[in-house]
Amino acid sequence: MENLRVLKHLAIMGGLRNFVPLSSGELAKMLGISQQSASKKILELIDNGIIERRLGAKKPLIKITKKGLGLLQKEYAEYQRMFEALKKLSVKGVVISGMGEGRYYLTLKGYKDQLKRKLRFSPYEGTLNLRISPGESSKLNILKESSGITIDGFQDGERTFGPGKCFPAKIRNMDCA
Q: What's the pLDDT score for residue 85?
């Protein structure tokens, strides 16, 4: 993992195509580690063929090798798979009765107008309450960390209503959020 952090910093500095000046002290500051640890890390990466080093006029010059590029590309591909999975997240559960408050909130002008504008359709004036099946709750954590479509909070003169977020969804091929 630490190897990837070093490679990421080097890549951002231009080390994928060119030799970049980088001392072990500078790397230590970037990673929040001691200069000695950074020096050992550089030597380890050189020994493993992940980076190469040349002597520069003032500082060592470092470049990512093809092997190092391969590690970064593998990491990138893993992130792509993770975020691609977010686009098609499936959550299983059982529909249950709620407290009847969804209809109230979804008929409020402050929410209703935003939902229509941001979702590009008028949602049903109520909510679908789902008891999530065991083992599915980790998927909700993914949604909590995702940006979604922000619905802003508002005031109606008497009360303050909080913000929320929506996610485009489908239930049996019917668009919803």
A: 67
